[in-house]
Design brief:
The complex is a heterodimer.
Chain A (H helix, E strand, L loop, with lengths): L5 E10 L2 E11 L4 E5 L6 H9 L6 E6 L2 E2 L5 H6 L2 E4 L11 H8 L6 H14 L1 H5 L10 H13 L5 E5 L7 H18 L2 E6 L2 H7 L2 E6 L2 E7 H6 L1 H6 L22
Parallel strand pairs in A: 3-8, 3-9, 6-7, 7-8
Antiparallel strand pairs in A: 1-2, 1-4, 4-5, 9-10
Helix pairs in contact in A: 3-6
Chain B lengths: L2 H29 L6 H18 L4 H24 L7 H23 L14 E4 L2 E4 H23 L1 H11 L1 H6 L4 H23 L12 H12 L4 H21 L2 H18 L14
Antiparallel strand pairs in B: 1-2
The chains are: A alpha/beta, B mainly alpha.
């Protein structure tokens, strides 16, 4: 593998006095989907916010296309080609679907390209075309998630940061959205850094994965191998292997503790 | 005073309140700060126009334009120099800052222009317009038309230009706006410029019906009440609130006695807060998870 698209090295990020990220390093190679797994409060969102510049890290570096992007304003980072789909969609509630999508392309000047990409977004999410003139506040949660992804796509990013796209959605919708995420990656060549609590969906979509606990990366491997790993199976997928004695071994410890 | 005259004076006065309230709401929506110096910016705008028109002898329209430009620049700089370093601090800090800014502006105006009320000639001064039985001062007509025109322009700007829609986006979700690559800081400063420019227009429009003096900015407190009545955060609400306060004042003054006039704005505000705490035209915000 060549030069990574995004490389994060030893970042430490604080929320006030609380150290939320304790020295995390990770790479995203061009064209890949990288998944970060972790429970509540593991620091998944903080990593993405540090990358996109919403929070500055105390230490460490974030390089995108070989260029240092940490400690810059988030709008500058976005203009470098990183689109952040935030947790909880964060669409612009009182603007129409079309206006939301147009804002995704705020930094672009090529009118024909923008029009082409709008069609593309409507192809991936036909529902958005039907509701183009409705205020985003009146979309359902799943539709807002699609709008948030479509809006990010309008920026023609090289890297998309996806923060829990499954949050609060019905299982069928989760599968639908993940199918589109994988298609976007294959068909449009958008690299993705995906953060998930839904370990199964996250690992099935991704190629490489990191497991994050209390601000540290405790495991990293290809998603295939992570899916097979005992610890991930037990603690993230909830699959309990029966022991020889026919009952669950209790007091099992995570290998990384 | 007969009814139509009360009505017209009230609407004209209400337009002034509405314009200043608009300034409050613009800044609040975009940056979640309340600028209590809004009325004092209006005062400075009126004084700048006075200097340009009465001092330098420029024509009225050039004076108006000049005052708008000077105040827009001042508003932009205020945000860059004073407010931006305060981002992330508690809202209270901003409140104190803008209140003290108001004091400073009043003091500076007193030093530069003196404390004696002044005025300048306008194309509308002292002329009367007869509509049927009613005699209306042209100044008031100018205020009403000026307000309508300005609101129309602002509406077109916010609804149909790229930057205007982006400003709405900043107001609705600042972080998401950042993620779109929208230069949030620059747009916030531009909003300050627009608010200060609107205040300048209000000051110039008001100059023929009120004297220009450093204390005239206290009118901003009534405009603040108007913004609250309209539902802080709603632009049409700010205008509506201004009209309600303006009309309420005139009628209270005529029917209940002059003493009530000054209290009307606050009584109305209290009534609205009790009956409809969100204001009359509050935007309902719901978020789905």
């Amino acid at each position: 593998m060549g030069e990574p698209l995004l490389s994060v090295r030893n970042i430490e990020t604080y929320y006030g006095p609380v150290m939320a990220i304790r020295g995390v390093s990770l790479d995203v190679h061009p064209g890949s989907i990288v998944t970060i797994l972790g429970g509540n409060g593991a620091g998944k969102t903080t990593i993405l916010k540090t990358i996109s510049g919403a929070i500055d890290p105390q230490k460490g570096s974030v390089r995108f296309l070989g260029r240092e992007i940490s400690r810059r304003d988030p709008d500058w980072v976005a203009r470098q080609g990183i689109a952040h789909v935030p947790e909880g969609r964060e669409v612009f509630p009182f603007l129409t679907v079309r206006e939301n999508l147009a804002l995704g392309a705020y930094c672009r000047r090529d009118r024909t390209g923008i029009r082409h990409d709008l069609e593309l977004v409507y192809e991936y999410f036909p529902m958005l075309r039907e509701r183009a003139d409705q205020q985003a506040a009146y979309l359902s949660g799943g539709q807002q998630q699609m709008l948030a992804i479509g809006r990010a796509l309008m920026a023609r990013p090289q890297l998309m940061l996806l923060d829990e796209p499954s949050l609060g959605l019905a299982p069928r919708l989760v599968r639908e959205i993940f199918a589109i995420i994988v298609r976007l990656n294959r068909e449009q060549g958008v690299s993705m850094l995906l953060v998930e609590q839904n370990a199964r969906m996250g690992l099935q979509a991704g190629q490489y994965g990191y497991v994050l606990e209390v601000g540290r990366i405790v495991m990293e491997d290809t998603c295939e191998r992570l899916l097979q790993s005992e610890d991930v199976r037990e603690f993230y997928l909830g699959i309990k292997d029966r022991g020889i004695r026919g009952q669950r071994r209790w007091k099992r410890r995570k290998t990384w503790r | 005073m007969d009814l139509s005259q009360l009505l017209f004076t009230g609407v004209a006065q209400g337009c002034i309140y509405g314009l200043i309230a608009l300034g409050f709401v613009l800044i609040y929506k975009a940056t979640e700060m309340v600028n209590f110096a809004q009325g004092d910016l209006m005062m400075i705008g009126a004084f700048v126009a006075f200097t340009l028109i009465a001092g330098l002898g420029l024509p009225y329209w050039l004076g108006l334009l000049g005052a708008v430009l000077v105040l827009a620049a001042a508003g932009y700089l205020l945000d860059v120099v004073l407010l931006r370093p305060l981002s992330g601090q508690p809202a209270f800090a901003v409140v104190i800052l803008t209140i003290s800014l108001g004091f400073v502006l009043r003091a500076v105006a007193g030093v530069v222009w003196g404390h004696n009320p002044v005025s300048f000639a306008t194309p509308f001064s002292g002329k009367l317009l007869t509509v049927g039985p009613a005699m209306i001062a042209q100044e008031n007509v100018a205020i009403i038309f000026g307000t309508l025109l300005l609101c129309g322009l602002l509406y077109l700007f916010f609804r149909h230009t790229r930057v205007g829609v982006a400003m709405q986006a900043v107001a609705q979700n600042q972080l998401a706006a950042y993620y779109m690559g929208i230069p949030v800081k620059r747009l916030s400063s531009t909003i300050w410029a627009i608010s200060a420019a609107v205040a300048a227009v209000a000051g110039v429009l008001m100059a023929p019906v009120a004297l220009i003096e450093p204390q005239m900015g206290f009118l901003g407190i009534k405009a603040f009440a108007a913004a609250v009545i309209g539902g802080f955060g709603s632009l049409p609400g700010a205008l509506l609130g201004g009209l309600i306060v303006g009309l309420g004042e005139q009628f209270a003054g005529a029917w209940l006695g002059q003493g009530f006039k000054e209290a009307t704005a606050y009584l109305l505000m209290l009534t609205v807060l009790v009956m409809r705490p969100g204001g009359l035209l509050a935007q309902v915000r719901r978020k789905k998870v």
